[in-house]
Structure formats: structure tokens, C-alpha cells
Design brief:
single chain; 285 residues; alpha/beta; Rossmann fold; 3 domains; 3-stranded parallel beta sheet
């Protein structure tokens, strides 16, 4: 815990913050690791007491060649319980093969309204809800099953998320990407619409996104879609009404059945009707 917290105290990633919070709660004294380096989609590393340590996911442990059959069995057991794994160890270097010091299991509690939010997205007209995660596939599958997500893809690096979004855009044309972290920002940038979780999102994600939710509530996305559809319908009705009125009075003017003042009165009246119709958008659905 001391090693993990010393490295993770540099990071704003939710898993890292959970590790630091737990270490603090358990009154584990930890310094701030030197030479910290973040490994996007993998974890992080840093120096502590002159030794080079790492914290990371299953993928990172594989890349560092520190996985053993016993560790693989343990990681599979944790991932099968829909929990994320954080492998903590001494990084291999020169003649040192490296060593795993321990494994932390971090469980992200599913929000009570998560399944309802996914259903609301479908009800709002979203054809397919897809989960893109850097977490392991077992955990991603378990979470997706709990909340009713159509497809779930795990073990993704930031560039993998970008490719997945591009694939979705090729199939569906319009694709919205919701994210809150640095790893999500590139995918949000290439999506038709990038949506950032305003309160929990990083500055990078919020700056990249086209819109930000002021509350960390996915049900607001479905409400935004419904409001967008409603707004378009009102705009279309206003344009049709305004053009219809002008067409009627143009015809009456050509046939000599109207006057200038009546035309002005009708034009002003049409403007007031259009404004009144638009004001209906202020009323909650």
C-alpha cells in the first residue's frame, strides 16, 4: 500500500485516488514517489527509496513479464467479480527480473440509476450503447450485463478507443462519446459529439468535449437528446408557419385582396406566434 499510494498520489485517475484514499484511511504513511511517469492505458511508475516501482493493470504486468501462473489465477478470480486489478511491484531492470509485491482489488460500485439511464438512452432513440474501457474484459462484461449495455469492449488503450469510435461512425454515421478522463479525450475528439462528465471529468476531457454535463448523471444525456429533438421540431414548425404566412399574404397581394397595413400586422402577429411557440421549450417535459 505504501508503494502504490506513493506513486498514485501523483495521479487524478479514479483508481489511483481510491488507492490513496484507502492508504490514508488505513493510516499508511507514504512519501511522494520521485520520477513519476504515467503509462496511458496501463498504469504508472516511479522511484521510492532508490528503487523503481510500478502500479498497473493486467496488461502492464504482462508487458513487464512479471506474470506467473499463480498471479494469473488470482487476477482472473478478481476480474470475474467485476473488480479492477492494480498490480504493484518492483520494475524489472538490468539483471533484476522484477517482482510482484501484491495485487489490489478495486471495485467500482454501479450507480443505482445506471440501468435506468441506459434504458432512457434507448428510449430516446439511441440505437446502440457501447462501453469502451481500459479495464479488463471480464470486469467490463460483468458491468455491461448488470446495466444492460449492448456491447462492451475492454483492455483498450486510448488509440484503441479512437479506432472503435471510428468503426461505430462508419456503421452508424453519428456517434456520441461520453468520457471523463485523459484516456477518453482522443476518442471524444473524433466522435460526432463529445460529452464530458462535468463534475468528475478532467480538464482535458472537458476542454475536448462539445458539451459537458453539469451533474455526473448519465440520465441527463437522454434528457438532452429529447430536448434536442423537441427543439428541432419547434424550429421546423416556426419556419413552416412563418413561410406559410408570407406565402399567403404574397398571394393575396398579387390578387389585390390585402393591404400594406394588414400585411404588416400579419407579419408582426406571425413573429409573436413564433416567439410564443419557442417559449414552450422553457417548460419542462
Amino acid at each position: 500500500m505504501r508503494v502504490a499510494a506513493a506513486i498514485d498520489t501523483h495521479s487524478q485517475h479514479p483508481l489511483a485516488q481510491a488507492v490513496v484514499a484507502f492508504a490514508t484511511e488505513q493510516k499508511v504513511a507514504f512519501p511522494r514517489a520521485d520520477n513519476y511517469q504515467a503509462r496511458n492505458g496501463r498504469g504508472a511508475e516511479g522511484e521510492l527509496d532508490g528503487h523503481h516501482y510500478f502500479v498497473g493493470n493486467h496488461r502492464f504486468a504482462h508487458e513487464l513479464a512479471v506474470c506467473s501462473p499463480a498471479l494469473e489465477h488470482k487476477l482472473a478470480e478478481i476480474e470475474g467479480q467485476a473488480q479492477s486489478v492494480v498490480v504493484v511491484g518492483h520494475k524489472p531492470h538490468e539483471n533484476c527480473p522484477g517482482e510482484v509485491l501484491g495485487v489490489l482489488a478495486v471495485g467500482d460500485a454501479v450507480r443505482p440509476n445506471a440501468a435506468q439511464a441506459v434504458r432512457a438512452l434507448h428510449d430516446a432513440g439511441i440505437r446502440q450503447v457501447v462501453m469502451l474501457s481500459g479495464d479488463n474484459q471480464r470486469t467490463v462484461d460483468a458491468i455491461a450485463e448488470q446495466v444492460g449495455i449492448d456491447q462492451a469492449h475492454g483492455d483498450l488503450l486510448p488509440e484503441d478507443k479512437v479506432q472503435r469510435v471510428r468503426d461505430l461512425m462508419a456503421r452508424h454515421k453519428h456517434t456520441g462519446m461520453i468520457g471523463d478522463g485523459v484516456n477518453d479525450a482522443p476518442a471524444m475528439a473524433v466522435a460526432s459529439v463529445g460529452i464530458a462528465m462535468g463534475a468528475a471529468g478532467t480538464d482535458t476531457a472537458i476542454e475536448t468535449a462539445d458539451m459537458a454535463l453539469m451533474q455526473d448523471d448519465l440520465s441527463q444525456v437522454a434528457e438532452t437528446i429529447r430536448m434536442g429533438h423537441r427543439t428541432v421540431r419547434v424550429i421546423q414548425a416556426n419556419i413552416a408557419f412563418a413561410l406559410g404566412v408570407k406565402a399567403i399574404f404574397l398571394t393575396l397581394a398579387l390578387t389585390g385582396h390585402t393591404s400594406l397595413w394588414l400585411a404588416i400586422l400579419a407579419d408582426t402577429g406571425a413573429t409573436l406566434v413564433v416567439i410564443a411557440n419557442a417559449l414552450r421549450l422553457l417548460k419542462p417535459t
